[in-house]
Write a structure and sequence with these properties.
heterodimer; A: mainly alpha; two-stranded antiparallel ribbon; 11 helices; B: Arc Repressor Mutant, subunit A; 3 domains; two-stranded antiparallel sheet
Chain lengths: ~300, ~450
């Protein structure tokens, strides 16, 4: 039973962190960059592990942030210097990084406890078995068990994301809604762009164990888009996005339990279904308004 | 002891040799199939690229996944045609969704792409995990379409792949003119009566078909790169669409050969990532070394231009110095030049050395003088500079203070013909807006003193 609670807690933290970051991705029209970073983070994770031989959180975050920023910078540079359209340059960079990541995973499959499956789905059902211990030194079994590693990873990142958004709320708001105004006020747009990319990289890498590289795109983009459709201000959009993400976790978990399907995929699917319900109800409203106007 | 060494495992080299001797006939078919796929995907991806929808292939490939799973779930068969049709249907739904969302809601095109991609993929994975929990036969290997496995393709798969890719290639060749017109100038195509929407649909169908047959080989996740990267790389090699597409298809085919080999030599390796890595390396090579548009070539061009500008600036400075001395052949020092033109010493020294080599300047103990050729060149440059200044002043109504900066740039790139044209247009003006005489062509320059503003 306690395993289920850990799984649910991890899933809802992952969904909430992704939704918060995703709001800014949608507003800055960087949804594809989110897609790209969530793919290339795999390479950062694998390289960090192969180089340092450690799975400590700071190292994982460091590797992911470096590769994430590199993806953003390379796509930008490529489209400027190589005169390639910006979406094409994003596509070229992230597929390259992701391909190298997958090759490394298959080469060192014995050493890294990642496999191709886990890259795609994550293994949220197994996270309770990989726990963190405090104290006890070398012998892990002696320490005091404090819960799954993945839970603490996403908890730390969630707190970082939340604090960053609260502290820099005004700046992020200006940059998201009025990039030109921000520019004329002397705000360093490039800095805030990479700041956002750092948050995205950290969130995706911390979500990696739970939901894998590709489903995280769904959690980044879909709840934030649903919120975007109905919200009238940035604050409501953030709250709504988190609300949508929590609802999808609840529905997805139930569905997965019933169908015995992958939990993370079911969560992503239910967030999509919620989005389509939102779109459909908005369409119906529009139709009604039009009908009312015609009469 | 030696008995154990009688059958050593075949080395990589031997494996590679046996690959190219095609001891396994099936392998030849896989190779042909993957080359065809690489070619057709590159060509059709090229049109998606031109329509500024470079990542559409990514979304469509992801969108095919639930179709594959549904087809398997409904018909309980791995028949390639059934799977193909299932994937085609769900890819098409994805395609329309990507189109519909930005048109009918507040959502932007990039968000629509990311939403469709991730939602369909999640749906596919959910169905896959559901299937894996079911008690049905021959469900193993369904997950191979995520990353692609050339070695795991069946005869049926390869036949279908062959038919579809050849169909795609032939269609593109047949409708090449129309596709090209639509890609570059849609509104013109519409005005001359081409049914643009119908061809757009055909193009979409071809893209979806290439993506769907490629799944076995390259995998859902990386199919985007096979559509996109060859075109992006080929663009550095030519400006002609037909040539670009042929180069793209060659790059696609070549990377298919590499990845199929690797998949054969190391069966645990997924094919798709290797194909993408080899394509990316080809892209990087093209970006750097392409003969006309590569970065290296552009860098050298830029350096040459800078060098040329520096040389010409010094020639003109020397001319102005001479003009001040009433063209009495007097040598000048470095300090004289630097008082007119702000330039770091070492740069000045290097440029002077080059000028000497080209026979435009001479260095003696007294200082630097222009050779007759150098003087001619310097006169020509000054003439162009002042002609342009006058032209701007008269025709563009710029004040004399404004014209210098423009002329400073254009003097290096004006051609002989343009110079004559300017001269004809300004036939009656002998002086530039600053009051300096414009040196005449093919005439002994008359001597006039004047100080030019810099």
């Amino acid at each position: 039973m306690s395993n289920d609670i850990w799984i649910l807690a991890t899933a809802s933290l992952v969904a909430a962190a992704c939704a918060l970051v995703g709001v800014f991705l949608i507003l800055r029209r960087q949804a594809l960059m989110g897609d790209a970073i969530s793919h290339s983070v795999l390479l950062g994770l694998v390289l960090a592990y192969l180089i340092t031989d450690s799975r400590a959180l700071p190292i994982m975050l460091g590797g992911a942030v470096i590769i994430g920023l590199l993806t953003a910078w390379l796509s930008d540079t490529l489209s400027r210097i190589g005169k390639v359209q910006s979406d094409a340059s994003i596509g070229i960079v992230f597929t390259f990084f992701f391909a190298i990541g997958v090759i490394l995973v298959s080469l060192y499959a014995g050493q890294i406890d990642l496999d191709q499956e886990c890259v795609l789905y994550g293994e949220i059902a197994f996270i309770p078995f990989d726990t963190l211990h405090i104290g006890g030194g070398e012998n892990l079994e002696d320490g005091f068990e404090i819960g799954p590693r993945a839970f603490w990873a996403i908890a730390v990142v969630f707190v970082i994301v939340l604090i960053s958004i609260i502290i820099t709320f005004n700046r992020l708001q200006t940059v998201a809604f009025h990039p030109n105004l921000a520019l004329s006020l002397g705000v360093n747009i490039v800095f805030w762009h990479y700041f956002l990319m750092t948050l995205v990289s950290m969130t995706t890498v911390a979500s990696f164990d739970a939901v894998g590289a590709i489903l995280v795109v769904a959690l980044l983009v879909i709840p934030a888009s649903s919120a975007y459709l109905i919200a009238k201000s940035l604050k409501t959009m953030l709250w709504l996005a988190v609300g949508y993400s929590q609802a999808s976790v609840a529905i997805g978990y139930t569905v997965a339990y019933q169908l015995d399907s992958s939990i993370s995929a079911s969560i992503a699917v239910s967030s999509g279904v919620l989005l389509f319900l939102t779109v459909a109800s908005l369409q119906v409203q529009k139709q009604r308004k039009r009908a009312a106007n015609n009469v | 002891m030696t008995g154990f060494e009688l059958f050593p495992p075949p080395s990589l080299w031997q494996n590679w040799l046996s690959f190219w001797r095609f001891e396994d006939m099936n392998l030849l078919w896989v190779l042909m199939g993957s080359i065809l796929l690489g070619m057709s995907a590159s060509v059709i991806g090229g049109f998606a690229f031109l329509r500024k929808r470079a990542l559409i292939g990514d979304a469509l490939a992801h969108a095919a996944l639930p179709g594959v799973m549904m087809a398997f779930l409904l018909f309980q068969t791995r028949d390639p045609l059934v799977i193909f049709i299932g994937a085609l249907c769900s890819s098409f739904i994805g395609f329309f969704l990507i189109d519909w969302l930005p048109k009918n809601t507040k959502l932007k095109a990039d968000a629509a792409l990311a939403i469709t991609l991730s939602f369909f993929f999640a749906l596919g994975l959910m169905l896959l995990s559901f299937i894996q929990g079911l008690e049905v036969s021959n469900k193993s290997g369904l997950d191979k379409i995520l990353f692609g496995q050339a070695a795991a393709m069946t005869d049926g798969d390869i036949k279908l792949l062959g038919y579809v890719t050849i169909f795609v290639l032939i269609t593109v060749v047949l409708f090449f003119q129309k596709f090209r017109l639509i890609a570059f100038n849609q509104s013109y195509a519409r005005t001359i009566g081409i049914a643009v929407n119908r061809y757009e649909l055909l193009l979409a169908l071809l893209i979806v078909m290439s993506v769907v047959v490629g799944l076995q080989l390259v995998g859902v996740v990386l199919m985007a790169a096979v559509l996109l990267t060859p075109m992006a790389a080929a663009r550095f090699w030519s400006n002609q669409l037909a040539t670009i597409l042929i180069i793209a298809s060659l790059l696609g085919g070549f990377s298919a050969i590499i990845s199929t080999q690797i998949s054969y030599l190391a069966p645990a390796m997924p094919t798709g990532p290797w194909m993408v890595v080899s394509l990316s390396i080809l892209f990087i090579l093209s970006l750097l070394f392409a003969p006309q548009k590569g970065l290296l070539k552009r860098y050298f061009d830029y350096q040459n231009l800078r060098q040329k500008v520096a040389e010409e600036n010094i020639l003109r400075t020397l001319y102005k110095l001479l003009e001040r001395k009433d063209f009495k052949d007097k040598p000048f020092t470095l300090a004289d030049i630097q008082s007119f033109r702000n330039m770091p010493s070492h740069c000045l020294q290097n440029t002077l050395k080059l000028l000497e080599k080209k026979g435009f300047a001479q260095r003696t103990f007294q200082g630097i003088t222009l050779t007759p050729e150098g003087f001619e060149k310097a006169t020509q440059l000054t003439r162009r500079h002042r002609l342009w200044e006058s032209y701007l002043n008269e025709q563009a109504d710029l004040s004399p203070e404004q014209v210098h900066q423009h002329a400073e740039r254009i003097e290096h790139i004006l051609t002989e013909a343009q110079e004559t044209q300017l001269q004809q247009e300004l036939s009656n003006s002998l002086h530039d807006p600053h009051g300096n005489q414009i040196p005449r062509k093919a005439e002994p320059t008359s001597v006039e003193r004047g100080g030019e503003k810099i």
